[in-house]
Design brief:
296 residues, OB fold (Dihydrolipoamide Acetyltransferase, E2P), 2 domains, five-stranded mixed beta barrel, two-stranded antiparallel sheet, 9 strands
């Protein structure tokens, strides 16, 4: 049975800078984007929301605004936060707008704040689910939830299915070789898709606006390509892995073969990829996009 992974379009590599967003209406982003941006992903419960606010700057040298402090009891740490039982999360108190934050752009361009985007994410006492957390930029030991990175609510009907997706992706991030060597073909495909999205996504929180490409470990790269060679593109999401890695018809010398009447386009495309790989694919390296500091 063919499954759809997390349904996120891969971020394109562009020369334009990534900008932080000023708070506006609430919203939600895809699971994969939340996972890529998170420093910690935990399954847990909000055990306390403190009454007294904590004044924090939302970015370096920014003005301080009142924040609410909540404590999450960690049941399972999927990403980061290992050997931690409780996590402190802060968010602007209701009615406190998020400050405009100037962020880095392309070299030679002045950082410019922009408006629009998602609203601040608050949590409530006794809330249970999966929380996608990033380290607070100015308060050591505290985490925050990025705008739009809404937690998965344990009370939701589709919670178990969404939790399974997050758990599988987190497992792939933690041990790519193990995930890409799973017994079931579809599990290998889903692991490959999670990793491909992560490797080719624009680096989260990249304030410099400068990016580069670096090869992933050779054993991981070979296993990613092996998934594309072995899995049936017409019956799995393997073609999405190829798309994410840029292995498209016409790229890297891959033939742009058109299917004849009655032929499955994905099957034809896979055969063309396999033929290309047999001759030239051994030289292909899977690369990840990384942030770089300007001038380095």
């Amino acid at each position: 049975m063919r499954r759809v992974f997390l349904g996120l379009a891969v971020a394109a590599v562009a020369t334009a800078p990534a900008f932080a967003l000023k708070i506006a209406a609430p919203g939600n982003v895809g699971l994969q984007q939340k996972l890529i941006a998170a420093d910690a992903v935990v399954v847990g419960k909000v055990t306390k929301v403190e009454a007294d606010p904590l004044d924090l700057a939302q970015f370096e040298n920014g003005p301080k605004v009142p924040h609410t402090v909540a404590t999450i009891k960690v049941g399972d740490a999927l990403v980061g936060a290992k050997n931690v039982t409780h996590i402190k999360v802060v968010f602007p108190k209701p009615g406190e707008p998020a400050a405009e934050q100037p962020v880095g752009g392309a070299p030679g361009r002045r950082p410019v704040p922009i408006r629009g985007g998602f609203g601040p994410v608050a949590v409530t006492e006794n809330q249970e689910g999966v929380f996608f957390l990033t380290k607070h930029p100015t308060a050591s030991g505290y985490y925050q939830i990025q705008p739009g990175h809404l937690p998965l609510n344990a009370a939701d009907e589709n919670y178990k299915g969404e939790l399974a997706k997050v758990t599988a992706a987190a497992g792939a991030f933690a041990d790519p070789v193990k995930a890409l060597s799973a017994d079931k073909v579809d599990d290998r495909v889903q692991a490959a898709l999670a990793l491909a999205y992560k490797y080719r996504a624009y680096p989260p929180n990249n304030v410099s606006g400068v990016i580069a490409e670096e090869p992933v470990p050779a054993d991981v790269g070979k296993l990613l390509v092996k998934v594309l060679l072995d899995a049936d593109w017409a019956k799995t999401d393997a073609h999405k892995v190829a798309d994410a890695l840029g292995l498209l018809p016409g790229q890297y010398g891959i033939p742009d073969v058109r299917p004849a009447d009655g032929e499955d386009a994905l099957a034809v495309r896979q055969k063309a990829f396999q033929a290309w790989h047999a001759k030239f694919g051994g030289k292909f390296e899977v690369k990840k996009i990384v942030a770089k500091t300007q001038g380095k």
